[in-house]
Structure formats: structure tokens, C-alpha cells
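User: C-alpha cells for this one?
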Amino acid sequence: MTTTTTLGVTGMTCQHCVKAVTSELSAIDGVTRVDVELQADGVSRVTVASGHALARSDVEAAIEEAGYVLTSWEQAPVAAHPAN
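Assistant:
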């Protein structure tokens, strides 16, 4: 089952920031995709798809390693759609 984790991250101001966060999060075991909606003057929305639930501590450590601050966290499993 795929899990989607939506994060709020502050401190990101440019595409270099996006690359740093994407790189750190992609290194977490099970992460399959990272999408960032950059808000240079506020809280950027980061969506992480993974093959299993992620530990908040791992995600927060990755964000901090990139130099930013995790401000919100929401995680939900995504059910597979049955074949039609």
C-alpha cells in the first residue's frame, strides 16, 4: 500500500532549496516520489509518496539536514484501485 505524507516546510526560497529537500527526502528508505510546491515567502508544501508509512523522526531529520524546518505533518495510506 502506498502512503502519502504531506509536509509544511519553512525556509525554502529557491530551486536550490527544492533540490536539497528533494535529495534528502529521496534518500529515506521506501520513498518513491517527492513533489515540492515552493512558497518562497511562506510555508512550502512537500508531498512524499512511499511504499510504507514513514517515521516522522526520519522525515524531520532529513528536512533539518537540508537546512529547513518541518512545520506540519499529515500522513495517509492510499488504497490501491481495483482493476477494472
